[in-house]
Here is the input.
Amino acid sequence: MAAATAAGAAAAAAAVSLVACYLLVYKSSLRVPWARTTRSSNASGRRARRRGLVEAIGNTPLIRINSLSDATGCEILGKAEFLNPGGSVKDRVAVKIIEEALESGDLVCGGMVTEGSAGSTAISLATVAPAYGCRCHVVIPDDAAIEKSQIIEALGATVERVRPVSITHRDHFVNIARRRALEANKLAAAQRELNTAQTNGVAHVHSETMDDKLAAMQREPYDTQTNGQAHVSTEMLHSGKCDSASYSKGGFFADQFENMANFRAHYEWTGPEIWEQTKGTLHAFVAAAGTGGTIAGVSRYLKEKNRNIKCFLMDPPGSGLFNKVTRGVMYTKEEAEGKRLKNPFDTITEGIGINRVTRNFMMAELDGAYRGTDREAVEMSRFLLRNDGLFVGSSSAMNCVGAVRVAQDLGPGHTIVTILCDSGMRHLSKFFNDQYLADHGLTPTATGLEFLGK
Here is the structure.
C-alpha cells in the first residue's frame, strides 16, 4: 500500500511537470478561438520580467462549454485555469504573493513560505516557490483529499496535516502556518546573533548559550504542535537554492485569505485576460469564493470596464457568503439554530465557502448570489465529463452550476464567464470516489440537466 501511495504521488507530480512542459512549448499556439488575443500592455509588461516555469502561468484559454451553451441558448465560457503548471487558478496567487513579498523584503531568496491551505494554494506555492529560490511549508486539514498532500510532498514541500477546527482556535491550520513563519524568523534571528558573536570574537563566551537556543527553537514546532503530525524544524536547516545558510533566511506567512496580493493577482491579471478574450462582450461573470480573491479581483476589474456586466457569487452548502451578499448578514441557517458544523461547514466541495468575510472578499462588486448543493456539483461534474470531456474538480463543477443558474435567469443570447479552477485529478479519493459518494447519499443518477430544475 505504501508503495502504491508513493507511486501515486510520484505520478501526480510527474503529471504536473508534463503539463508545465506542454504549456511552455505550445501555449502560445493554442488553437482556441476565445484565446486568440494579445495581452494588455499592463500584463505584457509584468509578464516580460518572468522566465521559465512562471512564464507558463496565466493566459489560459477561455473555452466554450458546448453542452451548457447549447442547453441554455447562452454562450457559457470557462476560463481553463486547470491548464496552469500547478494545475489551478491558485498559481496566479502564488506568483503574486511571492513576488510582492520578495520586492518588499518580507521574503528573501532561500527563505521559507508557509501557508495554511485545503490544497490548491499549497500545491501552487510548492510548485512556484522553488522557481524563486524559496522553500515551502504547508499546513493542511487532514480531511482534505489525501492526494493533495501527496502531491505537495512529491513537489518537495514540507506537509503538516492537522485536524480541522474553527478559525478562532489557535490550532486552526491557518494559525499554525502563521506560527511556523514566526518560528522560522526566530530561528533566523538566533542564527544571526550567533554569527555576529562569532564575527566579534566572543564566540567562545556565547556559543554554548546560542547553540542551546538554536536547539530549543528547532524543537519548538514539535513541542507546541499537539494537533497532528509535524515535520518542521529539520526542514529549516536544509540548504536552499540561493545560499548554503538558507536556514538563516527566515519565513514568510503567505496569508492567502487576507493578503491583498491575492486580489491584485486577479484584478491585474485574470480580469484583464477575460476582458480581452471576450473582446468586452460578456454580460455576466459568476464564481464561488473561498479566500475571495478571484471573485473580488475579476468582478472589480470587469465592473470598472463596464458597469452593466453582472457579477454573481455561487456559494456551497453551509457557507455564510450567500447570506452576506443577499441579506447583509453573515450567518447560516444551521448556525442561527445554535449548531456549529464541521470545518465549520458541511460540504464535500473543497476550497470554496467560508463563514467570515476576508479582506479580499470585501473588494468584490457583486449584483447577487446563488446557492448550490453538493448533489448539483456532483451531477454537474459527471454531466461535463460525459458531454464535453471536461474532468473538473468540485469548485469548478459548482461554478458551472452557477453559470447555468445565471443563464436561466438572464435568458438566451447572453455571454457568461466562469472559472474552471482545477481538474478532477486532485479529487479522486472523495469527489470522484463512488463509495465515498454512496456513503454520503450522493451517487449521481441524472442523465441530463434535470437536477437543476427549470
In short: The first strand starts at residue 62 and ends at 64.
